[in-house]
């Protein structure tokens, strides 16, 4: 049975198509389950886009056991179970302060076929499979119906051990997706995943954004590259950080920001996500501050010439100030939250808590 949150108002026409299955994430440490939550890149991305009031259409498949409450109804594959991932965290803390993670796919839902996609056009498409559910032919169909397609490389290079489901990565050029690179707009890659591709080669075909956690990200395109500054964060769980980055990145592009400013917004939402365990809940006060800053930035920016795929790569004047403004908004929200805990300010209701197995 699939349950959804009922909407009380009509949404605007979606400009973003998200393709990737929902998952059930189980966090394990010391052989003990320390957390369970709705997972999948699509859930983190949807949380960011919903928070930024950006309409999207989501194509995701779930099994007969799906019990989460979500805003967009997934496709029910009754003969399958919902994709499940177990994330094992070791006891050691590395020099960068982060914990290592071993990811295993315990079961996989049905793949997403080209015929599952809507017969409509979108400004932006996002191929964000996590369990091998996005097929090459599905990505090709997305390219046909979307003006700009952004792809998370994990949808392309993940392989899974036949015995225990441990996630393994393969070289990008060995996959059936490689020939489609000249037709996509942006490939998002983590610094670890970048070892499974040739950045210098791929940047000739499309924009490549390499995320590197607390060091921010680097944007590569055919004619240049830019480093985009990070935001300070007290990391609790790295799960979904790259997904939230991509959600923030697309949120910026939808609102007309050039790629450097959009990547900055991506870094911002990634920093918010790592400070929480599981799917993040964004403070409504903070979201409003971010929306205001984005609109102010949009009005201030001088738009440079666009490339062939419609993206703007040059860093406009005032980029550093935009970073400072977002950082100040985050700090202000944290101070307000602390004041609420002390009873100085009234509490502000954030996003609804997502139910786990039917329980809030």
Automatic annotation (TrEMBL):
The keyword ATP-binding does not apply. Pfam families: PfkB. Keywords: Kinase, Transferase. PROSITE patterns: PFKB_KINASES_2. GO terms for molecular function: kinase activity. PANTHER family: HEXOKINASE FAMILY MEMBER (PTHR43085), INOSITOL 3-KINASE (PTHR43085:SF13). Belongs to the carbohydrate kinase PfkB family. This is Carbohydrate kinase PfkB domain-containing protein.
């Amino acid at each position: 049975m699939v349950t959804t949150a009922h909407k009380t108002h009509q949404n605007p026409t979606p400009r973003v198509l998200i393709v990737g299955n929902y998952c059930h994430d189980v966090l394990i440490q010391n052989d003990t389950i320390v957390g369970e939550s709705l997972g999948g890149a699509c859930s983190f991305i949807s949380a960011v886009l919903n928070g930024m009031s950006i309409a999207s259409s989501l194509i995701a498949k779930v099994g007969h056991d799906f019990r989460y409450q979500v805003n967009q109804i997934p496709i029910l594959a009754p003969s399958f179970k919902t994709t499940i991932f177990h994330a094992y965290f070791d006891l050691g803390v590395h020099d960068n302060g982060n914990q290592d993670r071993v990811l295993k796919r315990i079961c996989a839902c049905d793949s997403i076929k080209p015929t599952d996609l809507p017969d409509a056009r979108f400004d932006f498409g996002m191929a964000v499979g996590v369990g091998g559910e996005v097929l090459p032919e599905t990505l090709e169909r997305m390219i046909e119906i979307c003006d700009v397609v952004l792809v998370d490389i994990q949808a392309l290079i993940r392989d899974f051990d036949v015995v225990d489901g441990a996630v393994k990565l393969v070289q990008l050029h060995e996959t059936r997706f490689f020939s489609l690179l000249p037709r996509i707009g942006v490939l998002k890659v983590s610094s670890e995943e970048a070892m499974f591709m040739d950045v210098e080669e791929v940047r000739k075909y499309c924009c490549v954004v390499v995320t590197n956690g607390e060091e921010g990200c680097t944007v590569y395109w055919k004619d240049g590259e830019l480093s985009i500054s990070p935001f300070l964060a007290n990391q609790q769980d790295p799960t979904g950080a790259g997904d939230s980055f991509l959600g923030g990145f697309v949120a910026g592009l939808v609102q007309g920001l050039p790629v450097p400013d959009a990547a900055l917004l991506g870094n911002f939402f990634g920093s918010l996500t790592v400070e929480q365990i599981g799917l993040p809940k964004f403070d409504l006060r903070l979201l409003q501050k971010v929306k205001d800053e984005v609109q102010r930035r949009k009005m201030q920016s001088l738009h440079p010439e666009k490339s062939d795929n419609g993206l703007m790569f040059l860093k406009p004047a005032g980029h550093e100030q935009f970073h400072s403004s977002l950082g100040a908004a985050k700090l202000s929200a944290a101070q307000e939250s602390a004041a609420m805990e002390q009873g100085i300010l009234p509490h502000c209701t954030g996003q609804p808590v997502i139910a786990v197995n039917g329980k809030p």
